[in-house]
């Protein structure tokens, strides 16, 4: 990545950040449990809680690794944007589906978009310039999924545009992190 986090005055802020983020995740996971006590409209099974727990824990653990591995704010922001968009796309796709309902086979394309990003990240070895390319590829894959859905008679252009924009914003942030890294290497 782009450098190791330094010890010092930021430790208190990082501890607060971790408490807020992980506490928010726990609250999000517990919300359906509380809602089930008051309404019959929310009916989650144990497997629903397990899937959602994994959906929340994995991106937060990856974000935690990124925060520990780099002091680059653009890199951290790029990771946060990409993981946030991936989480929302997965949640939306599993809950109600992006195309039609959650059982529509066209929705599997969106997991392909995520696969492009995951494979790209490993190929890039999580280096910022390569990550930027992987996120541009995700944006292109998102556009291809939207076009495929349109050809098949389904419309989710706005939603696909929002996700494509998130991938491209993340790519821009990774590109900025790569530029910052090059400046530090040239001056250091």
From TrEMBL:
This protein's UniProt keywords: Membrane, Transmembrane, Transmembrane helix
Parts of the chain that traverse the membrane: 16-37, 49-67, 79-100, 106-124, 131-151, 157-175
Name assigned to this protein: Uncharacterized protein
């Amino acid at each position: 990545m782009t450098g190791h986090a330094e010890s010092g005055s930021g430790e208190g802020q990082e501890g607060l950040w971790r408490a807020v983020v992980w506490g928010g995740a726990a609250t999000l996971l517990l919300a359906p449990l509380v809602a089930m006590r008051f309404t019959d409209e929310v009916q989650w099974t144990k497997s629903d809680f397990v899937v959602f727990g994994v959906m929340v824990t994995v991106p937060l653990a990856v974000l935690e690794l990124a925060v520990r591995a780099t002091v680059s704010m653009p890199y951290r922001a790029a990771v946060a944007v990409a993981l946030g968009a991936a989480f929302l796309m997965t949640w939306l796709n599993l809950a109600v589906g992006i195309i039609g309902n959650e059982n529509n086979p066209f929705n599997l394309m969106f997991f392909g978009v995520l696969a492009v990003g995951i494979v790209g990240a490993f190929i890039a070895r999580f280096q910022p310039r390569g990550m930027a390319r992987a996120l541009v590829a995700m944006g292109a894959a998102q556009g291809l999924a939207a076009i495929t859905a349109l050809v098949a008679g389904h419309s989710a252009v706005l939603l696909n545009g929002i996700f494509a924009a998130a991938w491209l914003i993340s790519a821009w942030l990774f590109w900025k992190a790569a530029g910052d890294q090059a400046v530090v290497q040239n001056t250091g």
